[in-house]
Design a protein that fits this description.
By secondary structure, this protein is mainly alpha-helical. Helices cover 53% and strands 7% of the residues. Strand 2, helix 3 and strand 3 form a beta-alpha-beta unit. The site of tryptophanyl-5'AMP (TYM) has 26 residues, from strand 1, helix 2 and helix 7. The site of tryptophanyl-5'AMP has 26 residues, from strand 1, helix 2 and helix 7.
């Protein structure tokens, strides 16, 4: 047996922190669901973890008919700026653009070869996105394999996401397990970490559907955009779907009312029961006003910070360039391990 180390070195300490990876697609602007489900957790825990966050621009190509190249470039930078505007510190985290690290696509191919098709057909996101389309690109089906590569390349222990991504993280574990069984222990098995409040924010115009980026442009009352102006936020929140009751009853709250309660709870951290007691017997207008106030208080500084950052795109690109270098170093080491395990490259 080797002697135990007397004192942990800085490297040891940093390696004891959980390794974290997460990302967002640069499709349209981000909404409050993205913030409460994911981004807020990234920021809150940035001192306790060794984290990488990417803007997954390759993932944004799965519906090519909808891709506008100039717009995609703009949104990629904009999503990175929003990460920083929400408080993510590029000094304490590695923040990068997925396409700047070619190892993702290469690893994804190798993982595609070990992923049974049936696993991909079962993904609910594939089913809902493919529904009603005459033909879909293969990328829509293999999308979660690229996501698995994003995660596995960095030996991530934890993947902080909203509830809708849990199935993809579980698939990542399954792919890693299958790979490890076929080729020997290569990958760390990650787990999804979802927030206690705000893991699934629903649409304000239809509380049976989750708030979603893909419909926020065509349905103006659907989402609370992080960059929406106050008058737009007011309109969206004050016209949120509730129910035909005139006043609030916590016991009988409908899905729309519960969604508003969840938003207020997640933003204020006031317990649900106490919010319930405060609004019991009052009109829904009062609850909506409280939600509007809490949202404005949170998103106004984010929007202002975002606007300031976007005035200096060269600086954003420099930060992303540095992030890509740091990410590549780690990704290349893992990919070398993967290629050696499967026997490609001599
Ligand atoms: P995306 O871009 O759809 O969403 C980004 C993050 O926001 C969360 N989220 C929500 N949380 C609560 N309520 C909602 N209504 C809501 N809508 C979205 C998502 O759960 C996610 O955490 N496939 C991923 C992107 C991805 C990724 C990765 C994530 C690619 N590679 C590697 C983690 C690790 C996606 O489309 O997320």
């Amino acid at each position: 047996m080797t002697e135990p180390a007397l004192a942990a070195t800085a490297a040891d300490v940093s390696s004891q922190r959980p390794r974290v990876l997460s990302g967002m697609q640069p499709t349209d602007a981000l909404h409050l669901g993205n913030y409460l489900g994911a981004l807020r957790q990234w920021v809150a825990r940035q001192d306790e973890q060794d984290a990488l966050f990417c803007v997954v621009d390759l993932h944004a190509l799965t519906i090519p008919e909808a891709v506008d190249p100039a717009e995609l470039r703009h949104r990629s930078r904009a999503v990175a700026a929003l990460y920083f505007a929400c408080g993510l510190d590029p000094e304490r985290n590695v923040v990068f653009l997925q396409s700047h690290v070619p190892e993702h696509a290469e690893c994804s191919w190798i993982l595609t070869c070990v992923t049974p098709l049936g696993w991909l057909y079962r993904m609910t996101q594939f089913k809902s996105k493919a529904e009603g389309r005459e033909s879909v690109g293969a990328g829509l089906l293999t999308y979660p394999v690229l996501q698995a590569a994003d995660i596995l390349l960095y030996d991530a222990d934890e993947v902080p996401v909203g509830e809708d991504q849990v199935q993809h993280v579980e698939l990542t574990r399954d792919i890693a397990t299958r790979f490890n069984r076929l080729f020997g222990d290569t990958f760390v098995l990650p787990r999804a970490v979802i927030p206690g409040a705000g893991a699934r924010i629903m649409g304000l115009d239809d509380p049976t559907e989750k708030m979603s980026k893909s419909v926020m442009i065509e349905r103006p009352g659907h989402a609370i955009g992080l960059l929406d102006r106050p008058e737009v936020l007011k309109k969206t929140i004050m016209s949120a779907v509730t129910d035909s009751q005139r006043e609030f009853r916590f016991e009988h709250a409908s899905p729309g009312v519960r969604n508003l309660l969840t938003i207020l709870h997640a933003l204020s951290e006031e317990p649900l029961e106490s919010i319930g007691a405060r609004f019991e017997g009052r009109g829904y207008g009062d609850l909506k006003k409280a939600v509007l106030e809490a949202v404005l208080e949170r998103v106004t500084p984010i929007r202002e910070h975002y606007e300031a950052l976007m005035r200096d795109p060269a600086e954003l690109d420099r930060i992303l360039g540095r992030g890509a270098e740091a990410a590549r170093e780690r990704a290349a080491a893992t990919l070398a391990r993967v290629k050696a395990a499967v026997g490609v490259g001599i």
